[in-house]
Amino acid sequence: MKYIVSEKLNDASGFTAYAKARMDVEDVLTSEGFLPLVVTYTKANLKSFKERTKRQFDAYKTWKNALKGLGKGDSLVIQYPEDNNCQLLGFLFNSLKRKGVKIVALVHDIDLLRFGNPGYGKVKWMLYRYLEVQKINSFSKLILHNEKMKETAVRECSLPEEKIVPLGIFDYVLDKSILEEKTGFDR
Q1: What are phi and psi of 79, to 5 degrees?
Q2: Percent of the chain scored above 90 by pLDDT?
Q3: Are 36 and 6 in contact (CB under 8 A)?
């Protein structure tokens, strides 16, 4: 079977371009027969290291529970980075791969490339970088926007070039009525 992870925020508010891109991907893939696997969580602004660490383990358990029915021959599409940015998911994805699940990440962005070191100390930065690269490397394939993003990901994250498929576009699905209303143009 073919599945797509559908992340749902309990307290989602507002309509942003970030959310639109994710919804477009879900709409296109579900129309192509992919079944949604829902991962629900509550976004939280946690300050202490203890709270953030607990949230990582809670997120891991939530994902593990949502994906527990996957097995040999199944394919799973994940939009990356995942909304809850759980650094432990690489371990889960690797265990799914060992069970015979093909995991494809449609990459919207790579935090290591977008943010660099966000002021972490050396040890914390090395751990964060290790977990991020380990998670990215746990995917069977990565779909990136274009060739430039592929080159940067290979160079900066040491990703194997053969795992990466450049999509060649950076576009969203646009509702015809919105296009006409906002621009006066028809498709």
Answers
A1: -90, 125
A2: 26
A3: yes
Burial 98-122 (b: 16+ CB within 10 A, else e): eeebbbbbbbeebebeeeeeeeeee
CB-CB neighbours of 68 under 10 Å: 10
Give this prediction's pTM.
0.79
How far are the Cα atoms of 27, 40, 81, 174 from residue 20, in angstroms, in the given order?
10, 18, 15, 10
Cα 24 to chain centroid distance, Å, stands at: 14
Evaluate if residue 15 carries a pLDDT over 80: no
* Neighbour tally for 187: CB within 10 Å: 6
79 three-class SS: strand
| C-alpha–C-alpha distance, residues 152 and 155, integer Å | 5
Burial class (CB in 10 A: 0-12, 13-18, 19+), 129: middle
Report residue 183 as tokens: 């621009």
- Scanning the chain, the segments in alpha helix (DSSP H) are 17-31, 49-66, 89-98, 111-115, 122-137, 147-157, 176-183
The identity of residue 105, as a single letter, is A
**SS3 per residue for 155-173:** HHHCCCHHHEEECCCCCCC
74: its two tokens: 């199944």
